[in-house]
Amino acid sequence: MAERWQDEPWTKHLWWTGKTTRRRFLSLSAAAAGAVGATMLVPPPWREAFGQAKPYKVGTLQPLSGTAAAGGKTALVGVQMAVERINTSGGLNGRPIELVIADYESKPDVGRRKAEKLMVEDKVDAHVGGYLSNVCLACMPVYEEHKVVNMVSVCLDTTITTTKCSRYTFRPFDYAPAQAVAISPYLINKMGKKWHIAYLDYAWGQSTRDAYIEQIKKNGGEVVGTTGIPLGTADMASFVSKISGSFDGLFGIFFGANAINFTSAIYDLGLTKKAKYAGDGAIAESTHLAALGQKIEGFVGINRYIPVLDPPLNTAAHRKFFDQAVAALKKIDPSGPLPDRYVQSNFEATNFLKLGIQKSGFRGREDTMKLIEALEGMEVKESDDFPQGDKTLRKEDHQAFLREFIFTIQGGKHKLIEVIAKEKTIVPAACKFA
Amino acid sequence: MDQIVIQTINGLVNGMVLAVVASGLTLIFGIMDIVNFAHGDLMMLGAFVGATVLGITGNFWLALFVAAIVIAMLGVLLQVTTLRPLIGRDPLTTILATFGISLVLQKYALWQWGPTVRKISEPVSGQFALFHLQYPWYRVATAILAGLIIGGLWLFLKYGKYGIWIRATTQDRVMAQAMGIPVPLVHTAVFAIGSAMAAASGVLFGPFAGVTQTMGSDFTLRAFIVVVVGGMGNLGGSILAAIFVSLIEAYAALVVSPAQAVIVSFVVLVLTMLFRPTGLFVPTPK
After folding, report:
1. What is the pLDDT confidence band of residue A138, given thresholds at 50, 70 and 90?
2. Chain A CB contacts of B211 below 8 Å
3. What range does the domain containing B129 cover?
């Protein structure tokens, strides 16, 4: 008997026996290379306007594959929208932005490796991006080591701007302690005193849970239990079934597919009839609403951004951002989702970087400290660059403060309930830069 | 006591869905010695096809049927173009090939359907009181339906002419070939059946948690544990192992945190590899 299957007689007809001549192989290869090369050599339409000007290289690490790929793709849309807008309106200090995109496959080790590559091989001048908190935390020392400004654009883990803060990292959007301060009075006064918190059991979920426990207690409420559910659990019924006892509300801290799984499980098991359902706004992002249907009706959440055009979001700047984002999202998703906070914060994080570069006269890495000083304490006003509203990028911890939106889901759409002014979301800084 | 009853039902429901996924996986391994890392992604793709058909027709059962057929055809294509040429090569080659297919399928789903989560509505509505919970009938119906699918497969393998061909090829490929069974065709057919079962489980599981391009990842990992614990290539063993592992995880959730409960299945895997490498549900080798 033959040693390998393919050497056995009965497998002979399985194998390709025709001949590919060298001439045919070479001609096909040349044609393929030509097609690929031609595509790569065609410059984007705005490039001509900059002549020989050296572009600013901005790296963006996003999870474009793996568990967080769906969110990563929408996050990237925000960065691309901002970069496209900057380049088509004359660039920065007469130079265009060249975006270097890296996929970290939703894994911290890959993220760290790709961050190193952006620093060493691609030699980026600054970074905008990140999505999963554990990846942001893993990569922060890399930016610090290479002295490159890192504008976090999604990661919400509290410690990024508290115990693990870095002089090189900025978070130009909200974080859990600010959200907890903003919504806790509403939870206690309008929904109930006793809460059970269910959270995604990793860096972001744990730090967010702690922030809510503190604020619910501070506002006179009580947290009667907590349930942590591992990231990526396909069926949460076994874990959700354990949630019992007496409580007025169930507060969820989930995002992405995990948010869908959790909401489906608590609805299917009747827990949303027993208690009110509230949580982080990531649970009810626009990309989730169609899939959740009736299951998300009545949910109360807090978010920095919701896709509504009602006051105070009925501004020309927001409408412009909204329309452009809808068009850009349609290109990556045929169902045409509305923009979410990932698109918004990536768009605005890039614009923060733009303002910092303009203000500091940043030329490259040698001017990183100038860029940091320009960004520290930066106040921005609601505008085309910042359609979400005014912001303060606090000097002490590089944490931004902005207005928050408390909303509910009605008829499958976001409905604004209350706007919390940015001044009412401020919590003391808890960072000591090394 | 009430929690034990609830977790028993949860474990059985979860175990039956897992059994459908794992039975396709073990069938493919048993006959071709291929560890199919793309199995969970065939499940995911089946769910997307099911969601699309459901969106057009509004008929869940038609969606289930069409998804199974479409993914079976995709399975045929994958087997003929990618896996068949690798038969007999180092197992690492097929592992890498199926891992590559898995990445391609995930990327394809994200490109084709975008990041928005898709919905598959439950064909059976309503709930019944189960202690402090309102338990959905659909979860029970899913377990029953999964049982019917597995039962149908078992009857086909036991009594069907082509089922007997499959069993003969699993036992001894060379002898089966000598007896006139078209072994390459059987390989392709088995891959198609395994793919169809993955697709069916994707559509059945869709209403539990929506359809995303990563929904198969957790199932792939758990199905591998089940296949090893049940005995590689042993269909009955895999089904029993699926229920066993799911029940153990559900009971563990009662006494430890969810993060620790999911480790239990890995502990079972390690213990099986150490003390009974042929699988828990196969007779002790003499």
Report:
1. very high
2. 291
3. 2-213
